[in-house]
Design goal:
Keywords: Calcium. It holds the Pfam family EF-hand_7. Residues 128-139 have a biased composition (Basic and acidic residues). With 139 residues, the protein is mainly alpha-helical. It contains six helices and four strands; from the N terminus they run ααβααβαββα. The protein has two domains: 6-99, Recoverin, domain 1, CATH 1.10.238.10; 102-138, no CATH class. β3 (114-118) and β4 form a beta hairpin. It starts with 5 loop residues before the first helix and ends with a helix.
């Protein structure tokens, strides 16, 4: 693969900063012909090897991977895929944390008297005020 500009990649993928060098090495290990692309199954192997994502998360992430005409994944798409998986994992963790704290974010202002409830399906967010909450609890 051509020379890698870590600073540019680090700026584009800040969520991968600590793993960027490892991800590049893994990509290059599979890109034995130095064509700048690897097979989709090889992307799955790299992502599985990170031990950060569940099988379902990997499967879902791999469905969105764009391939070239030969069915291979180029370097940018490879990094995009890992970054999206990492973002979705962080978002899921934040949603679980919000849910376990009763759905009320710590930054909610009591002056507004709104309660934010985040659903787990499709990252849905609902906002209700205290009056609506009282009616929902009473029914």
């Amino acid at each position: 693969m051509a020379s890698t500009n870590y600073r540019v990649l680090g700026a584009k993928y800040p969520q991968l900063n600590t793993e960027l060098e490892h991800l590049i090495q893994q990509f290059n290990a599979f890109d034995v012909n130095e064509e700048g692309s690897i097979d989709k199954s090889e992307v799955m192997s790299v992502v599985r090897g990170l031990h950060q994502f569940s099988f379902d998360q990997i499967q879902q992430g791999m469905q969105a991977v764009r391939t070239n005409d030969e069915g291979r994944v180029d370097f940018d798409e490879y990094l995009d895929t890992v970054a999206k998986l990492k973002d979705s994992k962080l978002n899921a963790a934040a949603a679980r944390a919000s849910h376990s704290s009763g759905g009320v974010p710590a930054s909610a202002s009591p002056a507004h008297k709104k309660i934010i409830i985040k659903g787990t399906a499709q990252n849905t967010t609902h906002t209700i005020n205290e009056d609506e909450r009282g009616r929902a609890v009473a029914t």
